[in-house]
Design a protein that fits this description.
There is one protein chain. The two termini are about 25 Å apart. Helix 4 links the parallel strand 4 and strand 5. Helix 2 packs antiparallel against helix 6. The protein has a single domain, classed as 3-Layer(aba) Sandwich (Rossmann fold). By secondary structure, it is of the alpha/beta class.
């Protein structure tokens, strides 16, 4: 089985993340969406919430499963038998970090390839940090998130549910 791991914090999962997952699922037999534990980062959503939201958002994709891990990503990939690490690139600013990390992973685990997918242009500026900032300041954060992700974020940040979610992540379930 040709398995790839798409790892991240997914705090929260955005439509950009979901786009990479969906496209990755068309390229690999299995995609494992794995929440990595980074003790240096403060989280808005707890691990159980992020897992629940990812399972709900990824439910339409039968070859995608959700998991979490601690430690090095390449060690996790070896444990689950993944031959590829899936990464999304938004801009040249992402490239330098992803390139350096990819080279380190290649050095530690030469049998595991890193596969980069370019982000759809409409998601190029979207990041979890930016979305939380928009939400905190009363902006239309729901438009950048799958519905389940918006509900979890709104609850965690004690935000009011917007009347009639609009945009790509709205109640239409298009996330």
């Amino acid at each position: 089985m040709n398995t790839a791991v798409y790892a991240g914090s997914f705090d929260p999962i955005t439509l950009g993340h979901f786009d990479v997952i969906r496209r990755g699922a068309s390229l690999f037999d299995e995609v494992v969406v794995a929440i990595g534990h980074n003790p240096r980062k403060q989280r808005t959503l707890d691990l159980d919430t992020r897992l629940r939201v990812l399972v709900e958002v990824c439910a339409p994709l039968p070859n995608v499963r959700v998991d979490h891990f601690q430690g090095l990503l390449v060690h996790y990939c070896e444990r689950v038998g993944a031959r590829a690490i899936l990464r999304g690139l938004r801009a040249v600013t992402d490239f330098e970090f992803e390139f350096q990390t990819g080279l380190a992973n290649m050095d530690m685990a030469p049998a595991i390839e890193t596969v980069f997918l370019l982000t759809e242009p409409r998601h190029i500026f979207v990041s979890s940090s930016l979305i939380k900032e928009i939400a905190l300041n009363g902006g239309p954060a729901a438009r950048y998130l799958p519905e389940a992700s918006w509900r979890a974020l709104a609850s965690a940040m004690s935000l009011a549910e917007p009347a009639g979610l609009t945009g790509p992540g709205g109640t239409s379930g298009s996330g």
